[in-house]
């Protein structure tokens, strides 16, 4: 079980090192005056620091290395 968690941490950490964020589109209402509604698509971005991915990779390696063999 611990070995699986460690491998998952390594994979997620490596993905975070490769892709440092993502963007998505959200529809927001600009005008809402009775029957008149105007909405616009706005792009939002989510970013994380690259060192966070490195920490996850190192943590996953430690968990895999210290896991007891079954």
Please give the domain count. 1
Strand count, sense and barrel status of the largest sheet are: 2 strands, antiparallel
Rg from Cα: 21 Å
Number of strands: 2
Low-confidence stretches: none
Quick take:
Keywords: Membrane, Transmembrane, Transmembrane helix. With 70 residues, the chain is α+β, with helices and mostly antiparallel strands. Helices cover 49% and strands 36% of the residues.
Outline the structure in words.
The chain is an alpha+beta fold. The chain has one domain (2-66). The chain is 49% helix and 36% strand. It has two helices and two strands, in the order αββα. The protein has helices at residues 2-18, 50-66, and strands spanning 21-33, 36-47. Strands 1-2 form a two-stranded antiparallel sheet. A hairpin with a 2-residue loop joins β1 and β2. α1 runs antiparallel to α2. The protein is elongated. The termini are close together.
């Amino acid at each position: 079980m611990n070995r699986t968690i460690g491998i998952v941490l390594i994979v997620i950490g490596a993905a975070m090192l490769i892709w440092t964020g993502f963007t998505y589109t959200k529809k927001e209402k600009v005008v809402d005056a009775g029957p008149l509604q105007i909405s616009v698509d706005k792009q939002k971005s989510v970013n994380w620091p690259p060192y966070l991915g490195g920490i996850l990779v190192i943590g996953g390696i430690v968990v895999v290395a210290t896991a007891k063999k079954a």
